[in-house]
Amino acid sequence: MRADTLASAEVIGYLNEHYVIAWSNLLPELYGNADPNAPPPPKYNPEHVKSVPEGAGGGNIRIYFCNPQGRVLHQVIGYWKPDRFLDEARFAASLFAMSPDRVIKVQTQRREELEKEQATAMAALPVEPKRNDPAARCAAQVGLRCRAANDLRKELHADIEDLLDRRREEVYTKGAVGCDH
User: Fold this and answer.
1) Is it the case that residue 42 has pLDDT exceeding 90?
2) 157 Cβ neighbours under 8 A, 6+ residues apart
């Protein structure tokens, strides 16, 4: 994300205008430098980054959008290119002025829409999809967005510090963020 999406001038401009940006690396000893201004790892050259499919990194990339009180309103899981990421950031910003009950209703409706989209994508899958099949990629991407929406049910309006503490604990007890054993 840092090498592409979070380096995009349009993304950075939007985030700086609408958010206070915080960075948390739950495993800096494993995943590198916790400084968001650190350059991307040298192994991620621009050609490699262009080839990374959207939705990659769904186990260890999580971006939380919070209100000014530090309560979670939205989350994005996985790697998304700048356009998709900006759509998610804009959606999250639209939630700021809503009451907590209204945010729950909007997020519930969004989750239901994503679940319908996922069912459609799954129905379009060939019986035996080939490697990098566009229909399989589409199904995987909407599946990851559904996962984020489903996870959000438990985390909506959670205090971000408490949530990050729980994630940190999961990393050490389960072995990896998002890994279910």
Assistant:
1) no
2) 71, 72, 73, 100, 103
